[in-house]
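Bug #77: duplicate submission created two jobs. Keeping one. Sequence:
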Amino acid sequence: MGVPKRKPSHSRQRQRRAYNSVLKLPQLGRCPQCAEPYIPHRVCPACGYYKGRQVITVTTPG
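Kept job's structure:
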């Protein structure tokens, strides 16, 4: 069986593993209150609602 002649360097290991984070992008859903995209199981950043009730008060910048 083939055995590596040298230990892979830290940078080479990290280059190989870095691509895995690209494959695991968060899936976005639509907020039922404002129809903006948001990450599931999180408070909607646009309107502040979570599970049908308002959790945070969102102010518009400006």
